[in-house]
Amino acid sequence: MLLGEALRNIAATKQRSLLALLGIVIGTASVIAMLNVGTIMQNAMLEQFRAMGTNVVNIRERFQREEDGQAVSLTPELAFDLGRETDGLQRVAPFSTGSAQLQMGAGNHNLRLTGATESLRDLLRVRLAQGRWISDIDGVSLQGVFGAEVAQRYAREAGSPLEVGERVRIGAYYVTVAGILEPYPRGGGVSPVSPNSTVFLPLEALQRFEPDGDLDGILARVHNEVDHSALGQQIIGWFSDRVPGLRVEVNSAEQLLENMEAQSRMFTVMLGAIGSIALIVGGVGIMNIMLVSVTERRREIGIRLAIGARNADIRRQFLVEAVLLCLLGGVLGAVLGTGVAYGFAHFTGNAFVAAPVAVALGVSVSTLTGVAFGYYPALQASRLDPIIALRSE
Question: Positive or negative, the Cα torsion across 103, 104, 108, 109?
Fold first, then answer.
């Protein structure tokens, strides 16, 4: 009975009810869309880590110091010794980076170069679209594996696709295209390079572009059962003993993933809080509409009280109307918010992942908004003096 009467009263003031409903719809949609967007972004970051694996550590120099008048730094020999002498490591891949200009058609474009070994492919988990990866027997031979974005840009600028076996000019040298990579997920965990925008060369061949020969770091795959924090301390201790002047830092994908998950949760909560502001504004609109309704229906309230209605009955009637408006707005807002999040995922190229509690939270919060902002008008209605109310025009 209360529900039917509430629906009739809402339908009697269609325009006003629609305006009040719109505020709740927008508020609920904002909360649900924000929560879903946060979940989508968190899932995208996790996928980047999964593409490379979480059992990978990146070892880099903290700073250099001179020992007996000579600067100490990471070298390929140190990297391979570390892999042999550290039980927790399965495979190591020293790498170095540089830059040069790639000739594309009539112009030159800045390019990132990465000196790689055969084992780096397994650690980065890159896939070849054409050709082969760097081989350890390539030595100083200028054999290049081109990232997907580099190959695509070359095809646009040069007017023809990049082909395996083709020789292209990089800096002062001609490099043979040994392979072309498939597109790589953006981010890539602790990956030191972006494979999409990089040309990989044999580690020794990179010295033609970067004569100092120093490594930028070492990627290493870790046994699954190994504690990453303890292994990091072990690696730091190993370098301290082997080369006292060399200080390194060890970044673990597992540790970074834990930090990112915590940050993502905070980010999602923050987005939800921002969206809740719109829901509060909608709640204020509901309160305003209900107060106006109480004023306009004073005579109706007086008649009900005069024929035996209790104050609690009047209060319950107006509260049901407020909650019904907010519940309906919550359902419509849930549909709209989910649609907005789906559109965001589609246009950003990410997989759509619904936040587990987004819809339930959005609808329940909108209902609570109806209770919170509808209670005061309902209380005002229940406290009207029936004699004064009956005199109202």
Answer: negative
